[in-house]
Amino acid sequence: MRKRIAGSAAAAALLTCLGAPIAFFRGSLDEMAFQWLFAMASILWFVSATTYASTKH
Amino acid sequence: MAAKTSGLAARMDKLYEFDREPVSEDKLQGGGRFAGLFAGEHVAATEFVIGAFFVLHGVTARDLILGLLFGNLLAVLSWVFVCAPIAVKTRLTLYWYLQKIAGPGLTLIYNIANAFLYCILAGAMVSVASTAVGLGFGIETPQLTDVYPNSVGWVLTTFSIGVAFTIMAILGFEKLSKFASVCSPWIFLVFLAGAIATLPKLGVHSNLDNLWEIAQTKIWTGVPTEGQEKFGVLHIMFFAWFANLAMHIGLSDMALFRYAKTWKYGWYSALGMYGGHMLAWLCSGVMVAGVSREMNPGLMAFTAIGIAGCFGVMVAGWTTANPTLYRAGLALQSITPDWPRWKITLVAGLSTSVLACFPVVFMKLLDYIALYGLVLMPVGAIVLTEHYLFPKLGIPRYRAERLGQVLNWPALLVWAGTLAACYYMPMHLYFRWLPGWFIASISYTVLMKLTDREVSNA
Asked: Per residue in B405-440, pLDDT tens?
């Protein structure tokens, strides 16, 4: 269960990291908001991906 | 205190990983591990520098795309059909296989050269990571022409990062590839996000209708920066091919592929070449255009995506410096068989940290990568020729092992002679390795055939 939650969070974090610059490029986000969102999603990625990799089940 | 130290040393000794024996069946690794390792290793801090240098060298957008497509394909084919099959067949590292062929004397020379070159490469990665950390502390990044460190702050930052990377490298193969697996998807996105976020600043419309025009007029303009040589499609193609020459044609990656269940795992290198090198080089080219062609990876990433970009440059340096230091440790271990791997990696890591303080290791990175592949290429040619060609020509293999030779002289002569021939070749540095490879293969075969009868009689 823990692995599944971590995996889902990691996938969401990666999608946000990809979506944020695209939103900035299309003009939906300003630069500060894009950079903040990217940084937050990056932290989430490292926490969740590390948890996913270290959890057995 | 002494007991505690020896206890720690004993625990570290347990990290020993069958470096000197063929890898046993139960230690073989699945394809996912190789995918992670290739993806992680080839989306690295040095890609920030390489892609940016292509822009500074005035390559055109068309030449860049064509050169990268063909050059990376050649690199993948070299892993699939040259390196992986030998590694899977022998299950040995190049260093131990070379000992059977050329004797411990030549292995010693090879390993010293190899470890030294690996340390410089890892040093470049440390330097690049240092530009990101230095940005946070207001430390001035060296200029394109700098050879020596330009400030105490640069030296302190770079050396500290080098020590941190060394500690990670000591932890071993499994932990390294796990670390790379966690980092690589995110690093890939750092490059991608950096390029996407830079495009509007260069004037690309949100419907991408002027993307190609901007690429040609503002990024890969075809005009080199002052003091930089002009590059064309062949430069790019050969660079993409030889960027990892020592690993595929030079057979260093036998150290990794000896763990592969099948030689077909060589195809995983495409993840590193296209998803890694090609994409990352394109993205870093866009990013350097966004900072008016200033060669500063930390600044490029920071300008594009903020503080996460700086962290990305750091992590990218880490994931590539780690396996490079690991390889340096492996190379040196055969010279000092009594030393545990952690100790020799520590020596390599500290040497790397010192080298990294000299900005020339990343400001001349493209030329260094060319030389690095060129120096080790003849050894790969010798091993490949002996492995495949000698049985077909009826030349006995493993002369050094059979006769208990310390040094296989024909091998040393071929290596030195090939490098001498390459030095005098009237062509660009990037193209010399290919004729050099044929010179090495043919001359080694001829020399071994000629001396075979004398050796047999003796």
From this structure: 889 999 999 999 999 999 999 999 999 999 999 999
Contact B326, B122 (CB under 8 A): no
**Cα–Cα nearest to B133, from B102, B164, B168, B105:** B164
SS3 of residue B61 by DSSP: helix
Distance in angstroms (rounded) separating the CA atoms of residues A17 and B193: 7
Q: Which residue in B182, B186, B197 is closest to A42 by CB distance?
A: B186
Q: Are A14 and B185 in contact (CB < 8 Å)? A: yes
b/e string for B109-144 if b means 16 or more Cβ within 10 A?
A: bbbebbbbbbbbbbbbbbbbbbbbbbbeeebebbeb
Query: Cβ–Cβ of A38/B305 closer than 8 Å?
Result: yes
pLDDT in tens, B9-51: 344 344 334 456 777 777 888 888 888 778 766 777 889 999 9
Query: What is the pTM assigned to this prediction?
Result: 0.88
The answer to whether the beta carbons of residues B247 and B117 sit under 8 Å apart is no
Radius of gyration of chain A (CA): 13
Taking CA atoms, what residue in A is nearest to B182?
Answer: A49
Q: Tell me which residue of B315, B359, B298 sits closest to B158, measured CA to CA.
A: B359
* Per-residue buried b or exposed e for B261-271, using 16+ beta carbons within 10 Å of the residue's own CB: eebebbbbbbb
Residues in chain B within 8 Å Cβ distance of A22? 196
Q: Is A16 on the interface with B (CB under 8 A)?
A: no
